Amino acid sequence: MDTTSQPGQQSTLSGTVIDPDGAIQPGLPVSLHQTNPSRLVAQTSVNAGGRYEFGDLAPGIYVLRVAPGTEQASERRDIAISGAEDEVQNVTVPKATSLRYRVTGKRLLTPAETGNSNHISGQVLDADGKPLDDVTVRMSWTGAAPDMKFPTVQSGQSPFKPRGYFEFVHTSGVFSVEVVDPAHASEVADNLITADMPQRRRPISYEVTFQLTTAAQPMAARSAIAGQIPGGPLNGAVTLSGGGDEPQARRLDQQRTFRFDGLSAGIYQVSLEGVGVIAEELILNGTDEASVEFPMRGQISGRVLPAKAGEKVMLTCQEYSIRKTAVTGADGVYRFAGLPADDYTLTLQESALPAQKISVDGRRLTEGPVFERQTESVPPLPVVPPPVENPPSASTKALRHYMLLDNSQPALTAQRLLLAQDYILRTRVTVGYDGGAVKEAARVTLVDPTAPDVIQALAVAATPVQRVSGDLDKIRQELEALQ
Of 91, 154, 184, 193, whose CB is crowded by the most CB atoms within 10 A? Predict the structure, then answer.
């Protein structure tokens, strides 16, 4: 069976998460990362059945991380996704040392489900999803007096309700419920609003489910990420994603700093508007702090000759989403500022001159290339004799070696000729644009694009052919490799 990935094909990665005793680990955070470049792809949590799943994955190499930053942290590296077949990765994590009650369900009941009463009810479950009786559940509300003794109930006390069931009757207000257990901490199901709900009249009822699960993700959410972007854009938007939560944004202040507080354990990445991801693989344990420094004080200054105002130089960057254009002054000088450390490509617009590459450290001025327009002249082409109707055999053909160029875009042709100078001098090849001339050559080098009829004629004549294609950099590399 052919498993070669075709365009548009995508795979699913799924599996189960258990501890060494075989117990499923519901609620553990799971994140998926691409390796080249390193990027956070998606996040999820292990469901009540112990499973996780990531869909619509493009072909590539991935890293799977379970419960990062916690005592149960585990990962799988070098997971190859083909785009043609689904992948299964079952993970065994270390056994947790503690348990806690998590809110695994919280929903507003429909009017038909309320039974025409105003109540907050639900169930308490153990780690295997079985009901737990005799567990204390407490209800509280906003605006209560400091010494208020809030009401509590025991789960599983009603003979007419399921095991593990609890229920409170409420009035209008904003309520919270939580488990009270000296042995295990509990999350709080809060913001249970029972008054002033748009388009909803009383009765109003909520259903809440508590489940005893491993405490792999610390209840404390006290981690922080603080950063500085020297030279960055004032009020530039910084976005934090990861940790299983929705992305959140901050604006750079006058000192070009930012800060995100109240973060739980997980893996995070930071993006800057107009640049892209500036920090990834930030692993937090729920109580620590990570710092990010991303200097953008790099500068490039160069010239265009002969000097004149209005020349446009374009700058692009492969790693980041940076694309800028600088216009020369009367002295022919162009300048770029606010650049992070990376490799950049500079191109003189409306010119056949080849693009130039330059590295910037993100902290200081770097001297840029000089573009000299007088070097743009195209070398003269040799005179090629007209083709004959019956070409001689290869040993007696008029041309020893012929390079065919496409001349539909003269500016691009000039760039290709400049890149081919070393090859032309080394091989003493004859260069031309006439596809018919290939019949007179004992050997041919084609620089794509090439007309199909030319390729067919060479195949019929069994003429030795070398072909180079791609962008300018690839053409240069392939010509350097040819003999």
Answer: 91
Question: With respect to CATH, is domain 298-376 assigned 2.60.40.10?
Answer: yes
Question: What is the token pair recorded at 257?
Answer: 């700093």
CB proximity list for 350: less than 8 A, separation 6 or greater? 312
Inter-residue contact 325 to 290 (CB < 8 Å): no
* 3 contacts 80 by C-beta, under 8 angstroms: no
Q: Which CATH architecture has domain 394-481?
A: 3-Layer(aba) Sandwich (3.40)
CA distance 105 to 208: 5
* pLDDT per residue as tens digits for the range 143-180: 888 889 999 999 999 999 999 999 999 988 899 999 99
Instruction: Write the burial class of residue 415 (CB in 10 Å: 0-12 exposed, 13-18 middle, 19+ buried).
Output: buried
Tokens of 344: 């950049």
CA distance 403 to 452: 16
Instruction: Please give the distance of CA 217 from its chain centroid, rounded to a whole number.
Output: 24
- pLDDT per position as a tens digit, 95-127: 877 788 988 889 998 888 888 899 999 999 998
Q: What is the pTM of this model?
A: 0.45
**DSSP designation for 438:** G
